[in-house]
Amino acid sequence: MRLDPLMLRAIKILAKEGYRFRVTVLAGASHSSKSRHYAGLAFDVDHLNGFKISDSHPYWRRFLQRCRELGATETLGPGDAGHSRHVHAAWPRR
Prior knowledge:
By secondary structure, the chain is an alpha+beta fold.
């Protein structure tokens, strides 16, 4: 399995734009069997711009919006089942 170049490009752009974030999962970990993580198409972030991800985090919504602008078709965060402490961005299967 290889990591998707469009996803990696997005991570690089996000960092260049000034987002500071900790990627906790790229491929692997424990997800549903159809998770895009296992195809190298998704990443999770638990810290963003100095704050842990939570519903009151000031930046997570804008971060996920920027991921969508960069091609992510699946974005999840606080309020979505299983995502109260991290955000998830995934690119489409090709």
